[in-house]
Amino acid sequence: MAVSPVRFEIPVFCLFVLFWLASVFLVKWEIGLPVRTLILFFGVLYISIIYRSNFTYIFFKNFHFWALLSIGLIGFFMSSFYTLDLVASGLYSLKWIIQPALILVFTMLCCLYIGEKTVVIFYAGVILLSCTVAILQYFDLQLAWDLKSQLDAIQSIDRVATVIAENDSGFGVYNDRFRARGLSYSPIHLGYQIALVWGLFYISWQNNNPTIFPFPRLVRYTIIGVLFFAIIATGTRSIFFGILLLYILHFLFNTKNKSLLIIVALISIAFISIGSTFYAALMNALDIRVLSIENSSSFSRLPLALFGLLLFADNPIGHGWLIEAEVYANEYWQYLHQFQNAEAIVQLGLHNHLIKTLFVYGLVGLATLFFYIKSIFKYYGLVYLIGLSPYYFHSLFHNDGIFLGGNYIWVFMGIIHFDFVKASIANKVSHNFQSKGF
Question: Could you tell me if residue 156 is left (phi over 0), alpha (psi between -120 and 50 degrees) or otherwise beta?
């Protein structure tokens, strides 16, 4: 079960470049189907047929497929049961289950034929370009905004509708320049992308694995600097605190002196208590959204979360893919109307990956998610869960995520699983040599 390419295959590289550019910069570009999906289907078929690919290594301990199959069966059954719309349920299976599986396969095939390092470099490079443009947008450089406008025009995106849907308003007036988004679809999408690149950096650093993040030290920290300033530029709080969570978890699980940990926690609590007034004044003066919690977006999270939990309590088996939570808003308004920004339950999705998983897939879906996370720990290790913590924390405040249409993560998972298979085979070969006395 070899996993090393014989030579660098230029057609495979071109396919990966086209797919990833379309996935990040032109995610809404469609010609009947999304262009990125068409490239994906063609790429998997082309590589499989032309190179007569052996898929054995792709299926080696690949728990991702079992998780996607399980969650797909739940989603299809529940959607068909409630709506009797087999066609729409099938389309969602294609979009939310089959497409992620193909992204996983495609990424591993690309790692095989052009090298894992090449895939990672381009994966991170495209996101870094978007981050750089976001920083320029933050400083209101016209060229950066014009470049994004041209990409929006290709995709026929209505920016006003998008901004309103995301509830990203500037002091009650919807302003398209309120938040930078780089060349990504939105600041939220860019947040998911940043989380995954940061995750690769952390995993590479902790495991001393340069293949996962193949950059020299100076370049590595330059990349992290660009990612950090892009987070400030987009004003996305969830990814900022997700990165902070990563290092808190790192500290928790890697500090042998637990008494020091308790002291640091107590000092932090005291600092937050004493400095809260000063902090609020400073943030208002600096006008840094990522460190502020005083706007409509943050206050809408509580009624949305309660709304989702009430929906789950009334129907713990799930609602499927085709029913949106907003259709039940009138029925639950009497319980939630007293909360600030309660009208969010009418206008927005649930904006919480865990609660939306409960709403869509029910208790069985939650169990599937739990065993999926447990499998990441079992096969890859705790470092990988910590590395993914910014991504998951970010998804707790937005609608996309694992098994709910978040596709960026499946390229990440393809890279990680390819690296895992390669390491497993190398260890097996080494063990065989040692057992034979070499």
Answer: left
DSSP-assigned letters across all residues of 205-268:
HHHT-TTTS---HHHHHHHHHHHHHHHHHHT-HHHHHHHHHHHHHHHHHH-S-HHHHHHHHHHH
Question: Per-residue pLDDT tens for 416-437?
Answer: 999 999 988 877 644 453 454 4
| Residue 420 to residue 402: CA distance in whole angstroms | 20
Report how far residue 150's alpha carbon sits from residue 153's, in angstroms, rounded to the nearest whole number. Answer: 5
Query: Helices 63-83 and 408-435 sit at what angle, rounded to 10 degrees?
Result: 150
Query: What integer best gives the mean pLDDT of the chain?
Result: 85
**Helix, strand, coil fractions of the chain, as percent rounded to 5:** 75, 0, 25
Short-list 241, 139, 251, 140, CA closest to 191: 241
Q: Which residues contact 29 (CB under 8 A, 6 or more apart)?
A: 22, 35, 36, 154, 155
Q: pLDDT tens across 357-390, in order? A: 999 999 999 999 999 999 999 999 999 999 999 9
Q: Across the chain, which distance is largest between two alpha carbons, in Å?
A: 75
- Count CB neighbours of 90 within 10 A: 14
Tell me, what DSSP letter sits at residue 308?
Answer: H
Q: Which residue has the tokens 């905004």?
A: 145
- 3-22 in b/e form (b: 16+ CB < 10 A) is bebeeebeebbebbbbbbbb
Closest listed residue to residue 118, CA positions, set 2, 1, 7: 7
**DSSP classification of residue 95:** I
Token readout for 166 is 């995301």
| Closest by Cα among 328, 337, 339 to 299 | 339
